[in-house]
Design goal:
- This protein has three domains: 197 residues, no CATH class; 212 residues, no CATH class; 130 residues, Histidine kinase-like ATPase, C-terminal domain (Heat Shock Protein 90, 2-Layer Sandwich), CATH 3.30.565.
- 74% of the residues lie in helices and 6% in strands.
- The chain contains 23 helices and five strands.
- Helix 9 runs parallel beside helix 16.
């Protein structure tokens, strides 16, 4: 009977986490799509209104853009994960310090790249990228324009991460839409009307990035955000932690750059330039759909980091359970749709079905989508590995996923099956990285992982043991009346004295009843409360988590000072009984922690 109740509570908890993840997912997907749309806009204007050589300049800038993106990802990822851990520990001062340090350091890095690009463009230091006498001047112009956009790009990525933490990602979406609108409008002005060529093309993109940054920065400069910038009192030693945690993500991008060079060389050698064109076309299309796995990983990364800081094994497991049971099936459906529409999608770029490039592109869109669901597994376990400090696992996954598997499998198969070897190699890469995740858990746990907990291979002593924790779910006022008794019985069974056991039961019932009575009635949505009692190191820790409107009982109690003492009696009672009460609103969820 107890197992049945526990499983029901776990399922309800996972359902709450799942609803939160899917509520956050659309915004993250939109953010990932924006870059692809802007790339499409720039490519369209370059190829149609400047010249084929201008398109070549855009392509040659690709490795430099990837380098800036890798460094930005390292800083953003490290800051997000570290900030999430401090959020889980309810340490606001350290979170504020991470904000100031990461924004300052990111600004300095961006200014360095700005100077490098400006010098390269102004003094024609681009011979290592191309010796083409027509393309090279266009690349110089393009670099000068792009130099203006490096600072807003890097800082914008940082601010987007902190807006996400504060559940304000809508501002990032508005900024992204402003970016697309400004980029498109200025291309019409600079490229079509003023004939500013490659410089106008890059300048349009750069000014679009500045427009996005201004929108995102508003809460931080207006005082509407909990985070604010300060120059004094920063603990710069946190820079090392940010770089250490974020490095694997940047390393993966570096590996992918090497992989691209190796695979392109093999394609040219064994297939020809038509293979490059087919791969480029399929990549252009699939990049839009890759926004879904990337958005899924972004949502899960922050939830995992917060839960890891709380040492909340159950929520960590729930995030991974949602990934397996909901994210993977959804991506499977999307992949199936791409496969079925392979030919119509191919005709966006190529119309002649008899041309080799047409058939190569069709096969790319029939095979490559199969690797997308597998990539979600690798992304999630890489994120969890970063958070948990599993350096060996994340470096092995980065190396395999970044370069070894795709390049290696392509080299083995390309003589036999030609261009399809590149596509099959990407699928085999997904299979290999998934097997590595299983093998790592097997090696660490010293047995084959038969449960999700085993697959995650939590560190020894991490979080409360199952027998020291009780989870309850409340969906109605009728269920509240049993809470006090069940909490008391659990506390007594774990050796807690009768006084604290009674206080714990009363406090939990009061707070749960308050949420049902006031939070559930604020809207017409279905709500649930996740209640958790943990006995650890002689402490009784009560945690109440709900998805109702934000409500801080501490603030409410301060506002109620001087009112009729009968009003808000439940909140007053809890604050008198508790040794410590902490409230956070994490990504739109109320989380109240009470220590008795």
């Amino acid at each position: 009977m107890n197992n049945t109740v526990e499983k029901a509570a776990q399922a309800a908890d996972a359902g709450m986490i799942g609803r939160l993840m899917f509520r956050l997912l659309p915004i993250q997907v939109m953010l990932c799509v924006v870059g692809s749309i802007n790339g499409f806009v720039s490519s369209y204007f370059a190829s149609n209104y400047i010249s084929v050589e201008a398109m070549g300049a855009v392509g040659l800038f690709g490795p430099l853009s990837m380098l800036v993106g890798a460094v930005s990802l390292m800083l953003t990822g490290g800051a997000s994960i570290l900030c999430g851990k401090y959020m889980g520990q309810n340490d606001g001062e350290k979170m504020q310090n991470i904000f100031c340090v990461s924004v300052s350091f990111s600004g300095l890095v961006a200014l360095f790249f700005t100077a490098v690009f400006a010098l390269m463009g102004a003094f024609d230091i681009t011979g290592f990228l191309t010796r083409d006498e027509v393309v090279r001047p266009l690349l110089d112009q393009y670099l000068l324009g792009q130099a203006i956009g490096v600072l807003p790009l890097v800082l914008g990525n940082q601010l987007a991460a902190f807006l996400f933490i504060e559940n304000r990602s809508r501002l990032t979406v508005i900024g992204s839409l402003a970016n697309i609108a400004v980029n498109t409008a200025l291309n019409l002005l600079f490229v079509l009307k003023l004939r500013m060529g490659a410089f106008g093309l890059a300048l349009s993109n750069a000014l679009g990035l500045w427009a996005a940054l201004l929108v995102q920065a508003w809460p931080f400069v207006s005082g509407a955000s909990h985070f604010y910038f300060r120059l004094g009192g920063m603990r710069w030693k946190e820079c090392g932690e940010i770089l250490k945690i974020g490095a694997p993500g940047a390393l993966s991008n570096g590996y992918q750059t090497i992989r691209g060079l190796l695979v392109n060389e093999m394609i040219l050698l064994f297939v020809g330039s038509a293979g490059i064109s087919a791969f480029a076309a399929s990549d252009n299309i699939l990049r839009l759909f890759w926004a879904l796995p990337a958005g899924m990983a972004a949502v899960s990364r922050l939830l995992l980091s917060v839960s890891y800081g709380e040492e909340d094994r159950q929520t960590l497991t729930d995030v991974m359970r949602v990934m397996f049971t909901r994210f993977l099936p959804l991506q499977g459906l999307i992949s199936a749709g791409i496969i079925l529409c392979a030919e119509p999608l191919t005709r966006i770029f190529y119309q002649d079905p008899t041309a080799p490039v047409y058939q190569m592109t069709v096969w790319a869109l029939r095979i490559l989508p199969l690797c997308m669901p597998l990539s979600i597994i690798a992304m999630h376990f890489t994120a969890f590995g970063q958070i948990a400090g599993r350096k060996v696992l994340i470096h092995v996954l980065a190396l395999l996923d970044g370069v070894v598997c795709v390049a290696g499998y392509t080299a083995l198969l390309i003589r036999a099956i030609g261009m399809n070897s590149v596509y099959v190699a990407n699928v085999l890469n997904g299979v290999t990285t998934t097997l590595v995740v299983v093998a790592f858990a097997w090696l660490v746990g010293k047995r084959f992982p038969s449960r999700l907990d085993d697959l995650m291979s939590f560190p020894s002593g991490f979080g409360a043991k199952a027998e020291d924790r009780m989870d309850l779910t409340v969906r109605s006022l009728d269920q509240v009346v049993t809470v006090s008794r069940r909490v008391q019985e659990f506390c007594l069974s774990r050796g807690v004295d009768s006084r604290r056991a009674n206080l714990s039961g009363l406090a939990m019932e009061e707070m749960a009843g308050n949420v049902v009575e006031h939070g559930f009635t604020k809207d017409k949505k279905r709500h649930a409360i996740d209640l958790r009692v943990t006995v650890k190191d002689s402490d009784v820790i009560l945690r109440i988590k709900d998805d109702c409107v934000p409500f801080d009982p501490g603030t409410r109690l301060e506002l109620a000072e001087g009112e009729d003492p009968i009003r808000n009696v439940g909140i007053r009672l809890v604050f008198r009984m508790a040794r410590d009460v902490e409230y956070q609103n994490i990504l739109g969820m109320n989380v109240l922690t009470v220590r008795i």
